[in-house]
Amino acid sequence: MNYTLADIAKMLDHSLLKPTMTVDDLEAGCRLAVEYDVASVCLMPYYVKRCAEILKGTTVQTSTTIGFPHGGHTTAVKQAEARQALDDGCQELDMVVNISQVLSGNWDYVTADIAAVIEPAHAAGQKVKVIFENCYLEDAHKIRLCDICTELGADWVKTSTGYGTSGATIPDLKLMCVHTPDSVQVKAAGGVRDFATLLEVRALGVTRIGTSSSQLLLEQCKAVLAGEDINPSTSCETY
After folding, report:
1. 0.70 cut: is pTM over it?
2. Active-site residue set
3. Residue 216, CB half-sphere, CA atoms under 13 Å: how many?
């Protein structure tokens, strides 16, 4: 095995984004993330401050969404969302591009929209993941977005919100890894539904995975590392 349990745990952004989640659900999710020492908790913006309190003193990062899930917020609103999240203790921002403007080829708008979130985040010493929502895009759009994110110094490019018509695919992940430098990491969201696929995308160079099933994936990882006879392709939800 060329990985440890800690290596896999630090690939996972534990997703708490279902709109029906209660405060009790969010509290339990944050505590589970601490127990398994994942990379981050990505949850609804209104709960960022409380999440940061729970995660204080741990190695789990607080993350939230900007312009989620459709990316159609005005640039000013996205920037205001980002500033509020940063003030509340957010360390990683997952922002959705303006899909309409991408499809319209208005690249100056798209660039300014992404920069409006990256600039305050980086000024505060925090990081940004830029969500493309690949299910709606052609390869040319994805490549151009990779180029823009590279120019702007985005920390990750991300396949999906998990709420589009499909999530991460192997061809998309390969394309994104090829068209970004080492300084821009790649995150898969939606589509990585079992431990076997997690290992497959890790081998491509993917460094983060958005999932609501961190516990299941990590328990599968423990079993595989222990040499137990399990089915590592047991399906789970990812967002």
Report:
1. yes
2. 94, 158, 187
3. 17
